[in-house]
Structures
1.
Amino acid sequence: MGPVKNPLKARLLGTKETSFGTWISSSSIVALDAIRELGFDWFMVDTEHSQVDPETLAAMMAILVGRGAAPFVRVGDVDPYLVKQAFDAGAYGILAPLVSTEAQARATVAFAKYPPQGVRGAAAAAASRYGAGLAGYLREANEETLVGIQIETREALDHLDAIASVEGLDLLFVGPQDLTLNLGLLDDRKNPKVREAMRRVVEACERHGKIPGTLIVDPEEKKAAVDLGFRFISLASDVRFLLEGARHYLQA
């Protein structure tokens, strides 16, 4: 691959267009391979709640890099090891869960960037074609890779502007289910209080030049997300596609 090229980041930050991707929750390389050419703008490989190990992650990145849809990774925590694993495997961006403070947002950026902007360590890994393209990768990675954090708690809502102002942070992604839980609403994702919190995230992104993102599970949620101004939208997940497809055939 050589130096990383991530045209989606430039489009999202420049033209403010809306992109549609999906979550990869199954840890199945076959499932990812089967849907990778359907027209999604990006894929988010989940390593927080799925069984994707480093070897599986590397294989998933290998079949995505340079083939159209941008490969992203939701890491399991704000942790330098996990961030390095994702980027070294070839990810064009990372998403860190449960970020509630400016300090956590700054740490996420630091772990994702090479010095002097951050503390990421260099390695002759897949992202740089095992060292063959390291010189170019080191010069371009900070600019080309995307750094996102998830807004999922009351504390995050209380610190929205401080989080959104962090330099080097590109994406604020609402985790709708965890946010709903943390607002005391269990699974009532369509509650007006959730929608109001989501609107606040979009407005903070607009004030600070960040990309607002979220995940939807049905057409009603998609319409609401677009109407609210979200521009990085996950259309459900590979597992949900499997379940809904199976139900469709059984009902038919």
2.
Amino acid sequence: MYTQKSFVLKPAEVQKKWYLIDAKDQVVGRLATSIASILRGKINPQYTPNTDSGDFVVVVNANKVSFTGDKWDKKIYHWHTGHIGGLKQRTAREQLKKHPEKILMDAVKGMLPKNSLGRKQLKKLKVFIGQDHSHQAQNPEVYEIR
């Protein structure tokens, strides 16, 4: 009797690729879902949920993303300083002026698993404000968002 064995991807067998994504005029949520799928490895045929089978992603022009509707003024980013009464908040428009890369980082972080695997996958995301990036040596392949 023949039984088919399940395929399990081992971390040593993973071939990591680099992708370059231009965030200019892209909607933040839709862009973040595509990035999260690449980071998790869901675009690979050998996807295994419990293994870091994802690829690296370099995002340029993070300061030129867009939101739908009136989220620029109504979306609020919260954080705590760690001191008493240290709850801070900033609108999306203010966040774009101070830290535009955090808009995309927070959106992708919310779409990854909330465990050590998700933290490892988030480290493979490199976000840059302008057109230039420091990962030319990896020869990232341009990835078009549909």
